[in-house]
Amino acid sequence: MSNHQARFIELKLNQILRYDSDEAALFRGFYENIENIKLKKIFSILHAQFNNLFSFMNDKAQANQHYNADPSRSLKDLIQFTKSFHANLRDEYAFTINDYYEDIMNKCISFLSSNGGSTIPEDFKFINIIEDQPIFNIANTKSLSSAVSSTTVHMRLIGEGSYANVFKYKDPFYNVFYAVKRAKNDLRFDELERFRNEFDDLNSLESPFIIKAFSYENKKNEYVMEYADETLSKYINRSNSTLLFESRRVLIEQLFRAFMYIHAKGILHRDISLTNILVKHYDDGSVYAKISDFGNVKRMNSTLTRQGTEIKGVLNDYNDLEVVGFENYEIRHETYALGKVIYFVLTGRTSNYHSEKNEPLKQFILKAVSPNKNKRFTNVTEMKEELYQKVYPTLRK
Questions:
Q1: Are 329 and 321 within 8 A, CB to CB?
Q2: Residues of each domain in the chain carrying CATH 3.30.200.20
Q3: Contacts with 74 (C-beta within 8 Å, 6 or more apart), sequence order
Q4: What is the H or E stretch that residue 298 is in?
Q5: Rounded to whole angstroms, how far apart are CA atoms 381 and 385?
Q6: Which of 5, 256, 294, 335 can pair with 377 through a Cys bridge, CB separation 3.0 to 4.6 Å?
């Protein structure tokens, strides 16, 4: 397969080599990570050609003129060449096309003519020419198999952190989306061990409100896990003006159940945030909060939390943790961060707690984030009882 694909790439390069130029050479720096020299050259040639033809189209659209015959044919041929090339490359040569440029290609192919010039639609929007990044990237793929067949699927990058990248793919056998979390190549031994422990936690924990991990691949240091649709931050910000109190209460109850279960297992999350809590939507209208990112957990019997460990977690109490050390993170730090999340779910706000007009809610959040740890909630059950007994009755009115 690899030899066949390599010959195919060489054939395609010969078809467009006449378009190679000094300008195309300028784009080769974007494709330095591609091992196949011929593929690298093809991408740089295509990139330069698309930019030239799109720029000319911008000029013509601005002047309310037709797109000339020669560039019209050239762009149509270029799009068809690129789509065919994309469809025929497999395995290590498979690649993705920049979403924005691919959308422009699809729109252009609908009005480009091979005979004479092309009429540019009246609603044509100015094309933002991409000159500072690649428009082609080698695709991340995953091999899948069932009892009767096997296949390779492309994965799309959907998230990037300090230690790992997260991809999304659709399993054709089950018609279900999954996520893949892959450790970065430059991790230290202890960081890689923590990454593996994160999988072990997610694989062993059984709760509908915690992201489930299914299988670990040692060769690539990656694991397959349940896919969720969006972050809690995105969900609340998107629906805050229409989200009913009952829906907010249900989400918070799910968070309570998740963290009561986690703590009962002797685990402190240590990285609670609005992006580490995910939201999954179901066809019946159900919405489930799911805790993810267990890479910074603290276990009572762990030796991985070293003295002087760097503080992580955007909602954490940095003032206190800088004094006591991240290795001494405890339950009152956990309820501190969780309190911020609960307040965000109820209000859509992340600050100005002292200006909260609902007095019971104000007292709840100020207790959760009190500078004096002795005044904070000492467990999730206390938080739940205060919300149900003092805060919720005032929010239902």
A1: yes
A2: 140-226
A3: 49, 53
A4: strand 298-299
A5: 6
A6: 335
- Sorted by sequence, the CB contacts under 8 Å of residue 148 that are 6+ apart come out as none
CA-CA distances (angstroms) from residue 80 to 98, 111, 134, 285? Answer: 16, 13, 19, 41
CA-based nearest residue to 233, from 213, 251, 211, 212:
251
Q: What is the pLDDT of residue 2?
A: 64
Q: Is the pTM of this model over 0.85?
A: no
Domain with CATH 1.10.510.10 in the chain: 230-395
Phi and psi at 256, nearest 5°, equal -60, -45
Give the separation between CA 275 and CA 8, rounded to whole angstroms.
43
Q: Identify the band that residue 93 occupies on the pLDDT scale cut at 50, 70 and 90.
A: confident
Q: What is the dotted CATH code of the domain comprising 140-226?
A: 3.30.200.20
pLDDT digits 0-9 by tens, 101-149: 999 999 999 999 888 888 988 888 899 999 988 999 887 777 777 666 7
Q: State CA 24 to chain mean position distance.
A: 31
Q: Which amino acid is at 91?
A: D
331-347 helix and 359-368 helix, angle to the nearest 10 degrees: 150
Enumerate residues 6+ apart whose C-beta is below 8 A from 56: 67, 68, 71
Top CATH class, 230-395: mainly alpha
**φ, ψ (nearest 5 deg) of residue 179:** -115, 150
- Report the distance separating Cα 156 and Cα 135, nearest Å: 14
At residue 132, the pLDDT reads 87
3-state SS, residue 299: strand
Strand, coil or helix: what is 69?
Answer: helix
- In this structure, are residues 62 and 98 in contact, taking their beta carbons and an 8 Å threshold? no
Tell me what pLDDT residue 300 has: 63
